[in-house]
């Protein structure tokens, strides 16, 4: 539960801009191309720092990384709410992504290592269900906060308005997550892999006592063991300390591309780039698209246009009109509820079929919806299709991660997760910016590109080697 809250706080921070964007974009007079850039700056920051924090997590602990990065995120959130112009906002959003990657990646590895392999995917889906409540919390907060008439001049170039208050309130879940995280132990697998055998055993005793409602001394096992490839390789002590750290990081990354792991690494990278990148791109633009759909429908009373007709409109006055109708936020709340339900359903029943078959089915369904959406001329059906694509892809993320965690030994898991999630953020950042540019003139081409990417990912899923986990203990 605590890890779910940590993940929720991270997602709130990275996706908060998506729901503030209609208001902030109007205030700062941002065209679609710049809005797409602002939405994806956090993912670009994640892209830069992913491997560094993955390496640090593999060598100093998952909890250590989450504590450091959560603290930095809290400071950046305050600065975020005070950004005076577009350039400053972009830099702050980039830095926010730089630190959030440590929290986000480590949280998934953390939960994955506490769950045995037979329930790992279910555990990650439960965590993702908690994280997906951000799409309930964020639009609900937006409905209350963004319409407020907040106008507080701070200095000449900055006026504190409602969207800045909205961002500042994200500090509440961030602070609660930090408090609860401080009470959690490090994962026993990590502790054992770095030679802290007794500490690892003590953590397991505590888990046993909590689950069985018994005393820790009643735990029947007195020693632990891991396969040799689960043990962490040592960092050299000769020469410069930081050079040795860098050498080990490069060595760990090179192992991922060795003959033993390269096929797993490449497949994982592509799947996360295409599926998670597409999901985050759709999430980034969902509030803006829903806003335009509902405004057009309520203004014209009829809806005889497609989503691409609306997104390609060049009416500057409408683009920068800050009299926003916030009814579209209800679509965001319903989307969040659907994500939570979908994660629970997949966790309880969906995993009864092979995970790669599940990913294939969801990929092909998403590709079909993406192709169909550009031809529809019904406001509620279009919003439903957009939401369905997001839900299908969103629930696949923890399923893919559960496979990735099983493909690599303990001392490489954070590095592997960081590398593969680097590609997901690359897909998110590039996708958000490209789609923002294409919305202005080539919207249909953008959606057809997403359709092709997701369809190819569905084909690749067929070859996922899920049986690799038998090669080493997990």
Main sheet: strands, sense, barrel: 2 strands, antiparallel
Q: What's the quaternary structure here?
A: single chain
First and last CA, distance: 22 Å
Kindly state the number of beta strands: 2
Percent helix range: over 70%
Overall radius of gyration: 23 Å
Average residue pLDDT: 79
What distinguishing features does this structure have?
19 helices, 2% strand, 74% helix, 474 residues, single chain
Written account of the structure:
The chain has 474 residues and is an all-alpha fold. The protein contains 19 helices and two strands. It has helices at residues 2-27, 32-60, 62-81, 86-114, 120-132, 134-145, 162-168, 171-181, 188-193, 197-212, 241-256, 262-300, 307-311, 316-319, 329-348, 355-373, 379-407, 410-441, 443-461; strands at residues 151-155, 158-161. Strands 1-2 form a two-stranded antiparallel sheet. Strand 1 and strand 2 form a beta hairpin. The two termini are 22 Å apart.
Tell me briefly what this model is.
By secondary structure, this protein is mainly α. Helices cover about 75% and strands about 0% of the residues.
What's the layout of helices and strands?
Blueprint: H1 2-27, H2 32-60, H3 62-81, H4 86-114, H5 120-132, H6 134-145, E1 151-155, E2 158-161, H7 162-168, H8 171-181, H9 188-193, H10 197-212, H11 241-256, H12 262-300, H13 307-311, H14 316-319, H15 329-348, H16 355-373, H17 379-407, H18 410-441, H19 443-461
Antiparallel strand pairs: 1-2
């Amino acid at each position: 539960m605590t890890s779910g809250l940590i993940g929720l706080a991270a997602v709130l921070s990275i996706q908060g801009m998506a729901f503030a964007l209609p208001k902030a974009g109007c205030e700062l007079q941002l065209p679609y191309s710049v809005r797409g850039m602002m939405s994806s700056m956090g993912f670009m920051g994640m892209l830069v720092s992913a491997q560094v924090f993955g390496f640090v997590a593999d060598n100093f602990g998952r909890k250590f990384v989450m504590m450091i990065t959560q603290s930095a995120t809290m400071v950046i959130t305050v600065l975020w709410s005070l950004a005076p112009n577009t350039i400053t906002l972009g830099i702050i959003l980039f830095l926010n992504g730089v630190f959030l990657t440590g929290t986000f990646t480590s949280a998934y590895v953390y939960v994955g290592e506490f769950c045995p392999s037979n329930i790992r995917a279910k555990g990650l889906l439960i965590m993702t269900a908690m994280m997906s409540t951000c799409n309930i919390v964020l639009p609900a907060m937006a409905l209350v906060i963004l319409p407020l008439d907040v106008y507080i001049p701070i200095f000449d170039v900055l006026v504190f308005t409602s969207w800045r208050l909205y961002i500042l309130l994200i500090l509440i879940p961030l602070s609660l997550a930090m408090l609860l995280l401080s009470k959690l132990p490090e994962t026993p697998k990590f502790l054992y892999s770095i030679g802290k055998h007794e500490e690892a055993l003590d953590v397991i005793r505590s888990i046993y006592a909590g689950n069985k409602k018994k005393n820790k001394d009643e735990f029947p096992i007195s020693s632990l063991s891991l396969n040799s490839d689960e043990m962490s390789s040592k960092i050299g002590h000769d020469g410069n300390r930081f050079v040795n750290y860098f050498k080990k990081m490069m060595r760990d990354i090179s192992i991922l591309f060795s003959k033993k792991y390269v096929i797993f690494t490449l497949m994982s990278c592509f799947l996360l780039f295409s599926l998670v990148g597409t999901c985050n791109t759709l999430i980034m633009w969902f509030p803006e698209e829903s806003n335009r759909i509902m405004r057009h429908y309520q203004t014209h009373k009829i809806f005889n246009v497609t989503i691409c007709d609306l997104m390609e409109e060049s009416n500057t006055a409408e683009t920068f009109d800050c009299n926003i109708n916030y009814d579209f936020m209800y679509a965001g709340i319903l989307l969040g509820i659907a994500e939570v339900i979908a994660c629970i359903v997949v966790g309880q029943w969906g995993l009864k079929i092979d995970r790669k078959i599940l990913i294939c089915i969801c990929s092909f369904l998403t590709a079909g919806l993406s192709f169909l959406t550009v031809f529809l001329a019904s406001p509620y059906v279009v919003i439903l299709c957009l939401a369905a694509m997001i839900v299908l892809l969103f629930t696949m993320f923890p399923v893919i991660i559960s496979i990735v965690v099983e493909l690599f030994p303990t001392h490489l898991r954070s590095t592997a997760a960081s590398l593969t999630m680097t590609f997901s953020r690359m897909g998110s950042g590039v996708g958000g910016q490209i789609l923002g540019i294409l919305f202005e003139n080539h919207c249909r081409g953008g959606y057809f590109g997403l359709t092709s990417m997701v369809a190819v990912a569905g084909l690749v899923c067929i070859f996922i080697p899920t049986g690799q986990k038998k090669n080493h203990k997990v």
